[in-house]
Amino acid sequence: MYDNLALEVQHVSIDYRDLTHMSLAKSLRKGEVRRANVVRAVNNISFSVNQGEILGIVGRNGSGKTTLLRSVAGIFQPDEGVIDTHGNRVSLMAIGIGFNANNTGRENILKSGMLLGCKMSYIKEHMDEIIEFSELGDFIDRPVRTYSSGMYSKLSFAVTAILDTDIMLVDEVLSVGDEKFRKKSFKKMEQLMQSDRTVLIVSHATNTLEQFCNRVLWINDGQFMMIGETDTVLAAYNESMQL
């Protein structure tokens, strides 16, 4: 069904370093050193995604789904293992990431597009389309810090969906916003699915994954559990949630 690999994740592990709490008085004492507790958020995960494939990622809260997605996006490097995007341009659609809060929506569109590797002329060519899709109106020229979470997600979706990238990473954004925008987002996603775009979707909404995904990856507490056909993996995941 697919001819080329778009993404390979090989034995990837990602650690968080959580600094222990220390009072101000104690921290000022000579020789007192804050210790860091190392938490392994993702542990030895491997999988591959073919060009044009839609892969869902499920797991309980705190399973490492978002951490894994952000590592694929290049926001931070894994502590172990390799992530190979095969030269593909990657965009991350997520709430609370990627925009400068002090810049306007319009300025953030330009910066986001350049970070995605798009030419300035291409971004400007699609500027009006992005603004219209986002439904932000005059807010597009106001600082992003004044946006609600719904407005932020609308702009994030519009930028990522309209500016052309090879691999699109979606982190729960489809479930945010008013009913009208959600319907429009789903329709846009359906159009993208018919293109050659490779997509990874993190979502707790199994009906969304059933609708869009060719396969699903299930991780739990940072551990690989299962990958395979959407119905099979979701059935196993839902059964585990009942335990």
UniProtKB/TrEMBL annotation:
SMART domains: AAA. Keywords: ATP-binding, Nucleotide-binding, Transport. The keyword Transferase does not apply. It comes from the Bacteria. One of its GO terms (molecular function) is ATP hydrolysis activity. Residues 19-243 form the ABC transporter domain. The keyword Oxidoreductase does not apply. GO terms for cellular component: membrane. Signal peptide: none annotated. Belongs to the ABC transporter superfamily. This is ABC transporter ATP-binding protein.
